[in-house]
Amino acid sequence: MKRLLVFLLKAVYLLPFFLFGAWLLQTAYFPQFELKESLAVVKSPAKEDDVFGKILNRQEAVPRGHFHIVDEYIAQPEPNPPICLTCHGTYPHSKNEKVRSLLNFHNGFIACAVCHARRERGDENIDFAWVDRNTGSITTQVVGEYGKYSAKIFPIVRDAGGQKKIFRPVDEEAARQFLKLKAQFTPDQIAQAKVKLHDHITTHPVFCSDCHQKDGYLNFAKLGFPRQRIDHLNSTEVVGLVAKYKTFYIPSQIDFGVEKPLQ
Amino acid sequence: MRLNLINFIIFLALLFVILHFGLASAQTDVIPDTENCLLCHRYPSMGRYDKSGQKRIFYVNEKQFANSVHGKLRCKACHVGLDEIPHTDVKKVDCSSKCHIKEPSTDKEFSHINMVEKYRASVHGEGSAKKPKPFAEDLPTCKYCHNNPMYNPFRGMWGKSEALSNETLARCIGCHTKKDWAEKFYSHFTQRMRNRRSQTEIIALCTSCHEDREKMARHGLESIETYKDTFHWSQVKYGVENAPDCLSCHVPVGYTTHDIRPRTDPVSPINIANRVNTCSNQGGLQTCHPGATARFATGRVHAYGMKAQIIAATGEVDGVDAEAQGLALVRQRAESDIPAEDIYHYKVLKLIKLFYQVLIAGTIGFMCLHQSLDYFRTKRKHKKSH
Amino acid sequence: MLDKGATLGGEPKRGSIVKTDKRYFVRLNYAERAQHFIFLGCFVVLVITGFMLKLPEDIVVKTFGGARDTVFFYRSLLHRIAGTMMIAVSVFHVFYLVFRPAGRRWLMDMLPRPRDLRDMVFNMLYYIGVKDEPPAYDRFNYKQKLEYYALISGTTLMSITGLLLWTEYRWSKFVLDIGILVHGMEAILACLAIMIWHLYEIHLRPHKFPIDNMWITGLIDEEEMKAEYPLHYHKIMEDPKLRKIYIRGEDQDLTPPRTVSIADLARIH
To answer: Which candidate from B39, B47, B360 shows the least CB-CB separation from A101?
Structure first.
């Protein structure tokens, strides 16, 4: 017992010296800056097509060279993001040059499922509500303005007991399982899985004018928008802008790589 | 006549609208957003990825923009085009263009052209028309280093005291009665009274390119990591206010960041002829080496890096394949860059380091062996005697 | 150094060695202990404040946060103060070696002799089990001599390079580069050597743990003296002059306390 104690004491006493010594040796023999590495790069420059490595190293929320000062909302983490963002990212719309940025800005406060899982006419089960960013639960307490809200709009359903529940057209559990298995799948299997995964995703997503009109798809008043703001959302300013886009853009089928529409 | 009347009414109405908007927007922190760009651009998640895969953020924070140096400008003053929605006709922002703001000292239209011209002639510029620099895409643009400079908040500003700012400002307002204007003006000139970026920020900015070994090798330069071997860096690491960052030596007092020249240029502060002045930093706030002698100042500051290593290496590089050619290029550049004397210095230092590495390894190895032998022998002897 | 006449004339008083446990031998006198103490303090301060420069950035920021410029200021100040003190102690030590009888004895005992080489070989043989007993050492064994000379050379190099770096604006960058390199490498060597060679001797040798009090009391008991420095022991026992110098607790009624505090340092001579 006593010997063990002495041994432990010795170990505790020795440890800092040992660590310090190891660090000293490192500074003497393996300085942080190693010339050899530098030479190696010149001798064999990395392949030009190593774009993915570069993307992997890109960590900044705001890219270098962005001029306007942005605030914390840009890098704001989303504690409970819809599972869609795992694959589609924070700027999911990319296809149509004319509207992608406009659609993307809605992504900041509207969950994908709101537009991409269309409620059938007369389907009273599905409703829309704010879901708090941090807690992930349905709330009516929303603060903020112009997209900087403390919550995000989600579709909700009432279950048999009348309890409100977030409606998730893509089963989150299944999606996670798919991501786990993805590497084992053959390309064909991946295609099949994708179709299955997006089973409840509509081919005709809700578009600008569906909401930005009187008595539109979303009930702004029920969501708690003030009168003035609702008027603005349905004003000629917005609706006019929206009308302009309609001539440019007809929402096409979403392409999950299975059925390629004819060009 | 009737038509004229209608025109007149429309004119009045327009006047009213303009005045109304003008008055309404004469508050601080609000941009005179007459173009209504914020209708969309005030949403933080507005953006997309461009063709190169780069993230493009189209969000503008209204308050922060209003408090920036450019806060009084309309969007279209810089973003030319934009007449169509969706914006298909937008042109790249050109900082050297004239904007419709009068520069008060000359009363001419303001432009960054002075700086841009200097910059083009500097080491970071694209080179002359006859001899353009290779890999132009590596060269930093205005935006690479500058983001929209914000006015400093009154607190923590020049003199680090809010009270000082208030007191000074109170004196201004005595004559310049419009408080808004006075505040902006005060912010505008005081923000120049100290460095906007900390030393570590400056170093991070410069090293974002100069530590990229590949990029530097493309231009026959070497990466700058050896800076972190200097005592200069040790001080910066500890946030010492007087510590030198890249700009302290490469852009000392009397020079501008836009006009950084290569060492060989006689106007460069790190040209041998100007070194004593640069090291002693006469006339600046920093006190560096006030008594710097010529002997001290003419040495190499950054530790000897790759170039010296390449030259000092005895092995010949045969220029057969592309890789070796790259190496040969660097070697060629290096040989013209580094005087033979420096290579001699480099070799001596290398030798001393090697000597110490062998000495330490030998000494410590012997000591460890000796002491462990001693330990086990003494233990054994004690066991025997007990 | 030994006075042959004294050895012949003065018989060891067998009768007085009745209670061996009451007799202690002086290894370090007051001046030597004071030098060691100051040097030790300076060394620790120099190591800490010096290697602080080599810490990686993230650790510096994490540890010291916003106050790190103040930390740097005091670090620099302390490093210079400790460096100056260390140089002062070293200079004093040289004077001590030349002008004080105890210092001259130290110097003579510390001079390297061919015997040390023989001791070293024999000791190695003892370690690997060829010999049964370690060689009989005089006042300083070869380990201590090696360490002493390493200390002398190290301190000289560190002082010179340190002073060079302190007056940086006078020298060419090449000289400073050598200065920085030598200062850094020598510091690493010194730290490692002290940790392995010196701290082992006083802390980790079997039966020395946790600490050998000798650096405070300056004394060791007769048993240890006989075991570790038998030659010196015999020299002392045979010479009344040396007995007077090195033995405590025989003629004077001075028993060293069991536990020793810093405060006792002044009391025990």
So the answer is: B47
